[in-house]
Amino acid sequence: MEISFLRASKSIATVGALALLTSLGCVENAIAQTSGQPASGQTGQQATGQAGQQPQKNYKDRAEYDLYSKITQTQDAKTRLDLLNQWQDKYPQSDFADDRAKYFINTLAQLAPTDPASRQQLIQKCLDMLKKDPKYFLADYYIALWGPAVGGANPPADLLSEVDSAAHGVLDGVDDTFNASKKPASVSDTQWSTLKNQAMALAHNALAWEAASKKDTATAESEYKASLQANPDQGTVSAAYGKLLVDDKKYPEGLFEYARAAQYAGPGPAVAPDARTKLLDYFNKAYKDYHGSADGADQILAQSKTNALPAADLNITSQADIANKQADAINARIASDPQFKLWYTIKQNLTGDNGDAFFNSNVKDAEIPGGAEGVKTFTGTVISIDPPDKPTKVVVGIEDATKPDATLEFSQALPTEALDKIKVGQKLDFSGVADSYTKDPYMLTFKDPTIPGVQTTAPPKRGRRKK
Questions:
Q1: Which of 15, 208, 294, 296 is most buried when burial is the number of CB atoms within 10 A of its CB?
Q2: What is the pTM of this model?
Protein backbone atom coordinates (compact mmCIF):
# COMPACT_ATOMS: atom_id res chain seq x y z
CA MET A 1 0.00 0.00 0.00
CA GLU A 2 1.44 3.35 -1.03
CA ILE A 3 1.43 6.12 1.56
CA SER A 4 2.59 9.65 0.78
CA PHE A 5 4.25 11.71 3.50
CA LEU A 6 4.92 14.73 1.31
CA ARG A 7 3.00 17.13 3.49
CA ALA A 8 4.79 15.89 6.56
CA SER A 9 8.20 16.14 4.94
CA LYS A 10 7.53 19.69 3.77
CA SER A 11 6.83 20.81 7.30
CA ILE A 12 9.92 19.01 8.49
CA ALA A 13 11.97 20.81 5.88
CA THR A 14 11.10 24.12 7.47
CA VAL A 15 13.26 23.08 10.40
CA GLY A 16 16.23 23.27 8.06
CA ALA A 17 19.49 21.44 7.81
CA LEU A 18 20.89 23.43 10.74
CA ALA A 19 18.34 22.11 13.22
CA LEU A 20 18.71 18.61 11.81
CA LEU A 21 22.43 18.49 12.46
CA THR A 22 22.99 20.72 15.46
CA SER A 23 22.89 18.35 18.40
CA LEU A 24 25.75 19.43 20.62
CA GLY A 25 25.13 22.61 22.61
CA CYS A 26 27.95 23.29 25.06
CA VAL A 27 30.14 20.47 23.74
CA GLU A 28 32.05 22.96 21.60
CA ASN A 29 33.59 24.72 24.56
CA ALA A 30 34.45 21.42 26.21
CA ILE A 31 36.13 20.12 23.05
CA ALA A 32 37.91 23.42 22.59
CA GLN A 33 39.50 23.09 26.01
CA THR A 34 40.76 19.58 25.25
CA SER A 35 41.99 20.68 21.81
CA GLY A 36 44.11 23.55 23.01
CA GLN A 37 41.83 26.18 21.47
CA PRO A 38 40.54 29.26 23.31
CA ALA A 39 36.92 28.50 24.18
CA SER A 40 34.04 30.76 23.31
CA GLY A 41 33.97 33.76 25.62
CA GLN A 42 37.57 33.27 26.87
CA THR A 43 39.07 36.41 28.35
CA GLY A 44 42.03 38.26 27.00
CA GLN A 45 44.03 37.44 30.16
CA GLN A 46 43.52 33.71 29.57
CA ALA A 47 44.63 33.93 25.95
CA THR A 48 47.68 36.05 26.61
CA GLY A 49 48.50 33.70 29.45
CA GLN A 50 48.56 30.84 26.95
CA ALA A 51 50.83 32.87 24.73
CA GLY A 52 53.05 33.55 27.70
CA GLN A 53 53.50 29.82 28.15
CA GLN A 54 55.21 29.65 24.77
CA PRO A 55 58.35 31.83 25.20
CA GLN A 56 59.86 30.42 22.02
CA LYS A 57 57.33 32.41 19.98
CA ASN A 58 58.07 36.03 19.15
CA TYR A 59 56.06 38.85 17.67
CA LYS A 60 57.36 40.53 14.54
CA ASP A 61 56.91 43.93 16.12
CA ARG A 62 54.91 45.84 18.66
CA ALA A 63 52.06 46.30 16.17
CA GLU A 64 51.57 42.54 15.86
CA TYR A 65 51.54 42.21 19.63
CA ASP A 66 48.94 44.97 19.96
CA LEU A 67 46.79 43.36 17.24
CA TYR A 68 47.00 39.97 18.91
CA SER A 69 46.13 41.46 22.30
CA LYS A 70 43.16 43.29 20.84
CA ILE A 71 41.88 40.08 19.27
CA THR A 72 42.05 38.23 22.59
CA GLN A 73 40.06 41.01 24.29
CA THR A 74 37.35 41.37 21.61
CA GLN A 75 34.09 39.67 22.46
CA ASP A 76 32.13 40.54 19.31
CA ALA A 77 32.74 37.78 16.77
CA LYS A 78 32.36 39.97 13.66
CA THR A 79 34.78 42.56 14.98
CA ARG A 80 37.23 39.83 15.98
CA LEU A 81 36.99 38.31 12.49
CA ASP A 82 37.91 41.68 10.96
CA LEU A 83 40.92 41.89 13.27
CA LEU A 84 41.96 38.32 12.41
CA ASN A 85 41.83 39.16 8.71
CA GLN A 86 43.97 42.23 9.33
CA TRP A 87 46.47 40.08 11.20
CA GLN A 88 46.48 37.54 8.38
CA ASP A 89 47.00 40.25 5.74
CA LYS A 90 49.72 42.17 7.60
CA TYR A 91 51.57 39.19 9.06
CA PRO A 92 51.05 36.16 6.79
CA GLN A 93 54.14 34.61 8.37
CA SER A 94 53.81 34.60 12.13
CA ASP A 95 55.09 32.55 15.04
CA PHE A 96 51.50 32.57 16.22
CA ALA A 97 49.98 31.20 12.99
CA ASP A 98 48.60 28.11 14.75
CA ASP A 99 46.97 30.25 17.43
CA ARG A 100 45.56 32.48 14.74
CA ALA A 101 44.11 29.48 12.88
CA LYS A 102 42.40 28.32 16.05
CA TYR A 103 41.00 31.80 16.67
CA PHE A 104 39.69 31.83 13.11
CA ILE A 105 37.94 28.51 13.70
CA ASN A 106 36.52 29.64 17.03
CA THR A 107 35.31 32.96 15.64
CA LEU A 108 33.75 31.56 12.46
CA ALA A 109 32.07 28.85 14.53
CA GLN A 110 30.43 31.58 16.62
CA LEU A 111 29.13 33.25 13.46
CA ALA A 112 28.07 30.12 11.57
CA PRO A 113 24.66 29.55 13.26
CA THR A 114 23.32 32.93 12.06
CA ASP A 115 25.66 33.78 9.17
CA PRO A 116 25.54 31.23 6.32
CA ALA A 117 28.39 33.00 4.52
CA SER A 118 30.79 32.17 7.34
CA ARG A 119 30.15 28.41 7.13
CA GLN A 120 32.19 27.78 4.00
CA GLN A 121 34.99 29.89 5.45
CA LEU A 122 34.86 27.82 8.63
CA ILE A 123 35.08 24.60 6.66
CA GLN A 124 38.08 25.89 4.72
CA LYS A 125 39.89 26.98 7.89
CA CYS A 126 39.22 23.56 9.38
CA LEU A 127 40.58 21.85 6.26
CA ASP A 128 43.70 24.00 6.48
CA MET A 129 44.14 23.06 10.12
CA LEU A 130 43.78 19.35 9.35
CA LYS A 131 46.63 19.62 6.86
CA LYS A 132 48.84 20.67 9.78
CA ASP A 133 47.24 18.43 12.38
CA PRO A 134 45.22 15.55 10.84
CA LYS A 135 43.84 14.62 14.27
CA TYR A 136 42.59 18.05 15.25
CA PHE A 137 39.21 16.94 16.57
CA LEU A 138 37.44 20.28 16.57
CA ALA A 139 38.18 20.80 12.87
CA ASP A 140 36.62 17.43 12.03
CA TYR A 141 33.71 18.26 14.26
CA TYR A 142 32.89 21.56 12.55
CA ILE A 143 33.20 20.10 9.05
CA ALA A 144 30.84 17.28 10.04
CA LEU A 145 28.47 19.83 11.57
CA TRP A 146 28.37 22.45 8.83
CA GLY A 147 29.30 20.49 5.71
CA PRO A 148 25.74 19.17 5.20
CA ALA A 149 24.25 22.63 5.70
CA VAL A 150 26.63 24.08 3.11
CA GLY A 151 26.15 21.20 0.67
CA GLY A 152 22.37 21.03 0.85
CA ALA A 153 20.52 18.61 -1.41
CA ASN A 154 23.06 18.64 -4.27
CA PRO A 155 26.53 18.80 -2.71
CA PRO A 156 29.71 18.71 -4.80
CA ALA A 157 31.75 15.52 -4.71
CA ASP A 158 34.70 17.15 -2.95
CA LEU A 159 32.49 18.34 -0.07
CA LEU A 160 31.00 14.85 0.30
CA SER A 161 34.52 13.48 0.59
CA GLU A 162 35.51 16.14 3.13
CA VAL A 163 32.44 15.46 5.28
CA ASP A 164 33.02 11.72 5.09
CA SER A 165 36.62 12.12 6.23
CA ALA A 166 35.66 14.55 9.00
CA ALA A 167 32.81 12.38 10.32
CA HIS A 168 35.07 9.35 10.50
CA GLY A 169 37.68 11.57 12.15
CA VAL A 170 35.18 12.43 14.86
CA LEU A 171 34.31 8.78 15.42
CA ASP A 172 37.97 7.74 15.42
CA GLY A 173 38.99 10.49 17.83
CA VAL A 174 36.01 10.63 20.14
CA ASP A 175 37.42 8.21 22.75
CA ASP A 176 40.65 10.15 23.07
CA THR A 177 38.97 13.56 23.05
CA PHE A 178 36.52 12.55 25.74
CA ASN A 179 38.98 10.55 27.80
CA ALA A 180 38.16 10.92 31.49
CA SER A 181 41.56 12.49 32.11
CA LYS A 182 40.65 15.40 29.83
CA LYS A 183 37.34 16.22 31.43
CA PRO A 184 37.12 19.84 32.59
CA ALA A 185 36.52 20.17 36.31
CA SER A 186 33.29 22.08 35.69
CA VAL A 187 31.77 19.15 33.75
CA SER A 188 30.28 16.14 35.55
CA ASP A 189 30.98 12.55 34.52
CA THR A 190 27.42 12.22 33.23
CA GLN A 191 27.68 15.40 31.22
CA TRP A 192 31.01 14.29 29.76
CA SER A 193 29.53 10.98 28.65
CA THR A 194 26.52 12.76 27.17
CA LEU A 195 28.75 15.16 25.23
CA LYS A 196 30.69 12.23 23.82
CA ASN A 197 27.49 10.54 22.68
CA GLN A 198 26.27 13.77 21.11
CA ALA A 199 29.51 14.12 19.14
CA MET A 200 29.15 10.55 17.90
CA ALA A 201 25.54 11.21 16.91
CA LEU A 202 26.60 14.29 14.96
CA ALA A 203 29.15 12.26 13.00
CA HIS A 204 26.56 9.60 12.15
CA ASN A 205 24.13 12.31 11.02
CA ALA A 206 26.78 13.68 8.68
CA LEU A 207 27.41 10.21 7.26
CA ALA A 208 23.66 9.71 6.83
CA TRP A 209 23.46 12.98 4.88
CA GLU A 210 26.36 11.88 2.71
CA ALA A 211 24.75 8.50 2.01
CA ALA A 212 21.38 10.06 1.25
CA SER A 213 23.06 12.48 -1.17
CA LYS A 214 24.51 9.46 -2.98
CA LYS A 215 21.09 7.72 -3.01
CA ASP A 216 22.54 5.04 -0.73
CA THR A 217 19.36 4.57 1.30
CA ALA A 218 20.51 1.49 3.21
CA THR A 219 23.61 3.25 4.56
CA ALA A 220 21.67 6.43 5.35
CA GLU A 221 19.13 4.44 7.37
CA SER A 222 21.91 2.61 9.20
CA GLU A 223 23.67 5.87 10.08
CA TYR A 224 20.51 7.57 11.32
CA LYS A 225 19.80 4.54 13.48
CA ALA A 226 23.35 4.67 14.89
CA SER A 227 22.88 8.37 15.58
CA LEU A 228 19.70 7.77 17.58
CA GLN A 229 21.35 4.91 19.44
CA ALA A 230 24.13 7.27 20.49
CA ASN A 231 21.83 10.18 21.27
CA PRO A 232 18.08 9.50 21.47
CA ASP A 233 17.27 13.17 22.05
CA GLN A 234 17.00 14.21 18.40
CA GLY A 235 13.46 14.73 17.19
CA THR A 236 14.61 16.19 13.87
CA VAL A 237 16.74 13.12 13.19
CA SER A 238 13.76 10.86 13.96
CA ALA A 239 11.79 12.83 11.37
CA ALA A 240 14.49 12.48 8.72
CA TYR A 241 14.98 8.79 9.53
CA GLY A 242 11.24 8.21 9.41
CA LYS A 243 10.95 9.74 5.96
CA LEU A 244 13.74 7.54 4.63
CA LEU A 245 12.06 4.44 6.05
CA VAL A 246 8.66 5.32 4.63
CA ASP A 247 10.15 6.14 1.23
CA ASP A 248 11.78 2.71 1.41
CA LYS A 249 8.35 1.21 2.19
CA LYS A 250 9.40 0.17 5.70
CA TYR A 251 6.14 1.51 7.04
CA PRO A 252 6.03 0.13 10.62
CA GLU A 253 9.47 1.53 11.51
CA GLY A 254 8.80 4.74 9.58
CA LEU A 255 5.47 5.30 11.34
CA PHE A 256 7.21 4.79 14.68
CA GLU A 257 9.83 7.45 13.87
CA TYR A 258 7.15 9.89 12.73
CA ALA A 259 5.31 9.30 16.00
CA ARG A 260 8.56 9.96 17.86
CA ALA A 261 9.26 13.19 15.95
CA ALA A 262 5.66 14.35 16.45
CA GLN A 263 5.96 14.09 20.25
CA TYR A 264 9.59 14.93 21.05
CA ALA A 265 9.93 18.51 22.31
CA GLY A 266 13.49 18.64 23.71
CA PRO A 267 15.99 19.12 25.24
CA GLY A 268 17.76 18.07 22.04
CA PRO A 269 16.86 19.35 18.56
CA ALA A 270 13.12 19.01 17.97
CA VAL A 271 10.76 19.62 15.09
CA ALA A 272 9.05 23.01 15.36
CA PRO A 273 5.80 22.93 17.41
CA ASP A 274 3.51 23.65 14.45
CA ALA A 275 5.25 20.96 12.39
CA ARG A 276 4.90 18.48 15.27
CA THR A 277 1.15 19.06 15.29
CA LYS A 278 0.98 18.36 11.56
CA LEU A 279 3.16 15.29 11.99
CA LEU A 280 0.89 13.91 14.70
CA ASP A 281 -2.20 14.44 12.55
CA TYR A 282 -0.46 12.80 9.65
CA PHE A 283 0.72 9.87 11.75
CA ASN A 284 -2.83 9.17 12.90
CA LYS A 285 -4.14 9.26 9.33
CA ALA A 286 -1.25 7.27 7.85
CA TYR A 287 -1.45 4.63 10.58
CA LYS A 288 -5.17 4.14 9.95
CA ASP A 289 -4.64 4.00 6.18
CA TYR A 290 -1.87 1.42 6.56
CA HIS A 291 -3.37 -0.74 9.30
CA GLY A 292 -7.00 -0.36 8.32
CA SER A 293 -8.05 1.08 11.69
CA ALA A 294 -6.69 3.14 14.57
CA ASP A 295 -6.30 0.03 16.75
CA GLY A 296 -2.82 0.02 18.29
CA ALA A 297 -1.91 3.59 17.32
CA ASP A 298 -2.04 4.73 20.94
CA GLN A 299 0.46 2.01 21.87
CA ILE A 300 2.90 3.19 19.18
CA LEU A 301 2.56 6.76 20.41
CA ALA A 302 3.17 5.69 24.00
CA GLN A 303 6.25 3.65 23.08
CA SER A 304 7.74 6.33 20.84
CA LYS A 305 7.28 9.00 23.48
CA THR A 306 9.95 7.37 25.63
CA ASN A 307 12.02 5.56 22.98
CA ALA A 308 13.81 6.92 19.93
CA LEU A 309 13.87 3.52 18.22
CA PRO A 310 11.21 0.80 18.05
CA ALA A 311 11.52 -2.54 19.80
CA ALA A 312 12.85 -5.42 17.74
CA ASP A 313 9.43 -7.07 17.77
CA LEU A 314 7.55 -4.03 16.47
CA ASN A 315 4.57 -5.24 14.45
CA ILE A 316 2.08 -3.02 12.67
CA THR A 317 0.14 -5.29 10.35
CA SER A 318 -0.88 -3.77 7.04
CA GLN A 319 -4.37 -3.99 5.57
CA ALA A 320 -2.95 -6.18 2.82
CA ASP A 321 -1.42 -8.58 5.34
CA ILE A 322 -4.64 -8.67 7.32
CA ALA A 323 -6.65 -9.35 4.17
CA ASN A 324 -4.25 -12.10 3.11
CA LYS A 325 -4.43 -13.70 6.53
CA GLN A 326 -8.22 -13.57 6.48
CA ALA A 327 -8.28 -15.02 2.97
CA ASP A 328 -6.01 -17.87 4.04
CA ALA A 329 -8.27 -18.62 6.99
CA ILE A 330 -11.40 -18.58 4.81
CA ASN A 331 -9.80 -20.86 2.20
CA ALA A 332 -8.76 -23.31 4.90
CA ARG A 333 -12.27 -23.27 6.33
CA ILE A 334 -13.84 -23.79 2.91
CA ALA A 335 -11.59 -26.78 2.30
CA SER A 336 -12.56 -28.44 5.58
CA ASP A 337 -16.19 -27.39 6.09
CA PRO A 338 -18.74 -28.15 3.27
CA GLN A 339 -21.44 -26.28 5.17
CA PHE A 340 -19.39 -23.07 5.32
CA LYS A 341 -18.28 -23.51 1.70
CA LEU A 342 -21.91 -23.47 0.54
CA TRP A 343 -22.80 -20.51 2.80
CA TYR A 344 -19.79 -18.50 1.62
CA THR A 345 -20.52 -19.29 -2.05
CA ILE A 346 -24.07 -17.98 -1.66
CA LYS A 347 -22.80 -14.84 0.06
CA GLN A 348 -20.20 -14.12 -2.64
CA ASN A 349 -22.85 -14.36 -5.33
CA LEU A 350 -25.37 -12.22 -3.47
CA THR A 351 -22.83 -9.46 -2.71
CA GLY A 352 -21.47 -9.45 -6.26
CA ASP A 353 -22.58 -7.24 -9.14
CA ASN A 354 -25.36 -9.66 -10.15
CA GLY A 355 -26.62 -10.29 -6.63
CA ASP A 356 -30.27 -9.50 -7.30
CA ALA A 357 -30.43 -11.76 -10.34
CA PHE A 358 -28.77 -14.59 -8.45
CA PHE A 359 -31.17 -14.19 -5.53
CA ASN A 360 -34.29 -14.18 -7.69
CA SER A 361 -33.23 -17.18 -9.76
CA ASN A 362 -31.43 -19.35 -7.22
CA VAL A 363 -32.23 -18.34 -3.65
CA LYS A 364 -35.62 -16.64 -3.19
CA ASP A 365 -38.33 -19.01 -1.93
CA ALA A 366 -35.86 -21.89 -2.12
CA GLU A 367 -35.30 -24.34 0.71
CA ILE A 368 -31.64 -23.96 1.63
CA PRO A 369 -29.30 -25.58 2.12
CA GLY A 370 -31.79 -28.26 1.07
CA GLY A 371 -29.18 -31.00 0.82
CA ALA A 372 -27.05 -29.18 -1.78
CA GLU A 373 -23.56 -30.71 -1.82
CA GLY A 374 -24.75 -32.97 0.99
CA VAL A 375 -25.39 -30.07 3.37
CA LYS A 376 -28.71 -30.27 5.24
CA THR A 377 -28.33 -27.43 7.76
CA PHE A 378 -26.33 -24.30 8.43
CA THR A 379 -24.77 -23.67 11.85
CA GLY A 380 -24.53 -20.24 13.42
CA THR A 381 -24.05 -18.63 16.82
CA VAL A 382 -27.04 -16.82 18.32
CA ILE A 383 -26.29 -13.10 18.59
CA SER A 384 -29.68 -11.68 19.56
CA ILE A 385 -33.29 -12.71 20.29
CA ASP A 386 -36.04 -10.13 19.79
CA PRO A 387 -38.18 -9.37 21.62
CA PRO A 388 -36.71 -11.16 24.63
CA ASP A 389 -40.01 -12.23 26.20
CA LYS A 390 -41.88 -13.46 23.11
CA PRO A 391 -39.28 -13.55 20.34
CA THR A 392 -40.18 -13.69 16.67
CA LYS A 393 -36.69 -12.98 15.38
CA VAL A 394 -33.37 -14.71 16.03
CA VAL A 395 -30.16 -13.23 14.56
CA VAL A 396 -27.15 -15.50 14.15
CA GLY A 397 -23.57 -15.26 12.90
CA ILE A 398 -22.38 -18.01 10.57
CA GLU A 399 -19.16 -16.70 9.05
CA ASP A 400 -18.19 -14.89 12.25
CA ALA A 401 -19.80 -15.65 15.61
CA THR A 402 -19.75 -11.93 16.50
CA LYS A 403 -21.11 -10.52 13.21
CA PRO A 404 -24.75 -11.12 12.22
CA ASP A 405 -25.32 -12.49 8.71
CA ALA A 406 -28.54 -14.57 9.01
CA THR A 407 -31.95 -13.64 10.41
CA LEU A 408 -34.52 -16.26 11.35
CA GLU A 409 -38.05 -14.79 11.35
CA PHE A 410 -41.05 -16.63 12.77
CA SER A 411 -44.73 -15.93 12.12
CA GLN A 412 -45.54 -16.77 15.70
CA ALA A 413 -43.62 -16.07 18.88
CA LEU A 414 -41.31 -18.88 19.85
CA PRO A 415 -42.71 -21.03 22.65
CA THR A 416 -41.11 -21.00 26.06
CA GLU A 417 -39.80 -24.51 25.53
CA ALA A 418 -37.83 -23.37 22.48
CA LEU A 419 -36.05 -20.67 24.47
CA ASP A 420 -34.45 -23.35 26.61
CA LYS A 421 -32.39 -24.32 23.55
CA ILE A 422 -32.17 -20.97 21.72
CA LYS A 423 -29.94 -18.72 23.81
CA VAL A 424 -27.50 -15.91 23.00
CA GLY A 425 -24.00 -17.28 22.52
CA GLN A 426 -25.13 -20.85 21.77
CA LYS A 427 -24.68 -22.72 18.49
CA LEU A 428 -27.81 -23.28 16.43
CA ASP A 429 -28.51 -25.53 13.42
CA PHE A 430 -31.24 -24.47 10.98
CA SER A 431 -32.55 -24.69 7.45
CA GLY A 432 -35.38 -22.87 5.73
CA VAL A 433 -36.83 -20.82 2.90
CA ALA A 434 -34.87 -17.70 1.94
CA ASP A 435 -37.15 -14.66 2.02
CA SER A 436 -34.92 -11.58 1.45
CA TYR A 437 -31.35 -10.27 1.67
CA THR A 438 -29.25 -7.09 1.93
CA LYS A 439 -25.77 -6.58 0.50
CA ASP A 440 -24.31 -4.10 2.99
CA PRO A 441 -24.34 -5.05 5.72
CA TYR A 442 -24.82 -8.56 4.42
CA MET A 443 -27.87 -10.35 5.77
CA LEU A 444 -29.89 -13.32 4.48
CA THR A 445 -33.35 -13.68 6.02
CA PHE A 446 -35.23 -16.98 6.42
CA LYS A 447 -38.98 -17.24 6.93
CA ASP A 448 -40.20 -19.78 9.51
CA PRO A 449 -37.04 -21.91 9.37
CA THR A 450 -36.71 -25.36 10.83
CA ILE A 451 -34.44 -25.88 13.83
CA PRO A 452 -33.74 -29.62 14.35
CA GLY A 453 -34.73 -30.77 17.82
CA VAL A 454 -36.61 -27.54 18.60
CA GLN A 455 -40.35 -27.02 18.29
CA THR A 456 -40.73 -23.49 16.96
CA THR A 457 -44.52 -23.31 17.22
CA ALA A 458 -46.65 -23.88 20.27
CA PRO A 459 -48.65 -27.15 20.22
CA PRO A 460 -52.39 -26.68 19.59
CA LYS A 461 -54.52 -26.29 22.69
CA ARG A 462 -57.01 -29.04 23.40
CA GLY A 463 -60.56 -28.12 24.51
CA ARG A 464 -62.19 -29.63 27.58
CA ARG A 465 -64.36 -32.73 27.02
CA LYS A 466 -67.95 -32.12 27.91
CA LYS A 467 -69.43 -34.39 30.55
A1: 208
A2: 0.72
